[in-house]
Amino acid sequence: MLTKKQSELLRFINERLKETGVPPSFDEMKDALDLASKSGIHRLIMALEERGFIRRLPNRARALEVLRMPESSTPAPRPGKFSPSVIEGDLNRAPKMPTIRVEESFDAYQIPVMGRIAAGTPIAAIQSASHTIPMPPEFLGTGDHFALEVRGDSMIEAGILDEDTVIIRKQDTAETGDIVVALIDDEEATLKRLRKKGGSIALEAANSAYETRIFGPDRVRIQGKLVSLIRKY
Questions:
Q1: Residue 74 burial class via C-beta count within 10 angstroms: exposed 0-12, middle 13-18, buried 19 and up
Q2: Which residues are the active-site residues?
């Protein structure tokens, strides 16, 4: 079952494809659904694809087709000789057909960089955003994200090095074994592997030179979970 916004977007795309053979731009989608930003459109597109209502075509940047509408399990009518285009992604096999290209490019989200995070002794808590970095949607998944620059070597055995940039999905819960951004006593932020031990929370390094630190649950707040990493050589 689709949400109201998902249904509205699917119908809007399908109607535009039937009329012109070209899907609307992200700005047009945003305005039609009265959303504040194009990132909301990205999330709706991903949800529609996961539910089998649309398909992003492989080897064709931003190519898209509507497979079916909510009231029917049959494929949506294709608009004549045209083939839809302009949604990012190369995820599924697709029939060979021509595509119509649109000049706008929406291949990346702009992720805010919120300062530095310690992979070692905790440093000052997360700062305000200083700049943004582009990230392809396939490296993110659903939810809101932010980036942090890593300082320290306590997570090197997990493949996280000093001066890497980590991409974090915002969430306030996590499972044992997840690598998280943890805020200690509302003052210090650190990047560690989470372990739950009874009523306590352990923040575990991935470097034998560092000890695991154990806290009461009221002293640690989860700020997000590691989902991706960027490294410059």
A1: exposed
A2: 154, 192
